[in-house]
Amino acid sequence: MATSATTSAPLIEKHTIGYVPPEDRHGKVRDLFTLWFGGNIAPLPIVTGALGVQLFHLNLVWGIVAILVGHLVGGVLMALHSAQGPQMGIPQMIQSRAQFGSLGALLVVLIAGVMYIGFFASNIVLAGKSLHGVVDSVPVPVGIVIGALGSGIIGIIGYRFIHVLNRIGTWVLGIGIVVGFGYILTHIQTDDFLTRGSFNISGWLATVSLAALWQIAFAPYVSDYSRYLPANVPVAATFWTTYLGSALGSSLSFVFGAVAVLATPVGMDTMDAVKLATGAIGPLMLVLFLLSVISHNALNLYGAVLSLITLVQTFAYRWIPTAKSRAVISIIVLLACCFAAVGASADFIGHFVDMVLVLLVVLVPWTAINLIDFYAIHKGQYDIGSIFQVDGGIYGRYNPQALLAYAIGIVVQIPFMNTPLYVGPVSAHINGADLSWVVGLLVTSPLYFWLANRDSAYRRRLTSGKLAGSL
User: Fold this and answer.
1) Cα–Cα distance, 111 to 113 (Å, whole number)
2) How far apart are CA 218 and CA 104, in angstroms?
3) Which fold has domain 24-344?
């Protein structure tokens, strides 16, 4: 669905965390498919998908089944967040003030910002390695800087340019990965391609969780890329275009990683396996993946910067951040990540995956609270003005019900966790499978719904004067 603003929308985005007024709304809902499909054809999901057979020792068939189940389940949550964008017209993280209060939302915003800075730093490392793989004379540190600069330029230009690049990337990367699959499957270099590994329940559950958490990790910023669409875009249309694009693109990349490592000798690094398995077209595949990681990484920088702006604006409430503010903060984040990535250890990506698993433990209850509040409690109707007030307006500085449900949602996950910091007793009993996210969702969702409704009933009685004498 397009509007008259579509053709007149400036290439360089002028908004940051503020409400996008109707006259600035533009774009087509199908752009969400290309954004999330093209953005997920990238090295990091390929490396992550390979873990099902590398680390959890599944065979090809059971690895693919686990990948599909995880993405199809996790993608539902991710797409439900995306559907909030056109209705609200504001970024996802600042919208959290309506659930947690203006100050209560700070912890979640900070966690999201740290996670996306981690994503950005990890991806520029992959960009550096990919560039070095294509051109040996380019050292990895130089490749890291080049990758960061490319992503930085895209992120600073902003929303519309990100969508344009991913429309192109969907066709180029989609065709590229299909050709890559065809080459690998006709040039398998191992005798145990179909027999290496086997079904094991802990490995299968762990792979499902890995795929589901990949989708959930997008939740804190997915609606940032739908908020410019016209408010009358149907919720179902936003949901399905996002869901199909993300689930399909991610699944293809995850399966591609699994296929590449099974088609090559045991013990190879995933991207080395991709290069070897794709043979004559290997250099071309690396070039495509390099361009992909640079383009997709702009989303991580963009999301991180919006989170940081939200943090600062909470206290500097008179500040009206502009495109210039977004550019300055983007450059600061870019320089800090380059410094960290260039000086990082060889196992930087592994450390990053460990960090994400820890952070997701505290993001899962947020996702449950946000979705229940939007779809079941407020039904999409919020006071946007209050969200930007220093005292939270009608939402207050803190929402005790949300914070209580959030804290309990974290605590109940502990026995089911499997992170570098802690392995819960239940997870240890089932050979390390991490089911904390399932428990977090199942407990937090009904708990917050009950607490919020109980609070709403109290407020209605208070307004009608029934409790006035007891105050």
Assistant:
1) 5
2) 21
3) Hydantoin permease (1.10.4160)
Tell me how far apart the alpha carbons of residues 191 and 445 are, in angstroms, rounded to a whole number: 47
End-to-end Cα distance, the chain: 51
DSSP 370-415: HHHIIIIISTT---HHHHTSTT-GGG-S--HHHHHHHHHHHHTTGG
Interatomic CA distance for residues 94 and 382, integer angstroms? 12
Q: pLDDT (tens digit, 9 = 90+) per residue, 180-231? A: 999 999 989 898 999 998 998 888 998 998 899 899 988 888 998 999 899 8
CA 458, 459, 464, 466 dihedral sign is positive
CA–CA dist 460, 127 (Å, integer):
55
The C-alpha atoms of residue 348 and residue 125 are separated, in whole angstroms, by 8
Tally of CA atoms within 13 A in the half-sphere of 135 that contains its CB? 13
List the domain boundaries for the chain: 24-344
Rounded CA gap, 297 and 121, in Å? 9
pTM over 0.85: yes
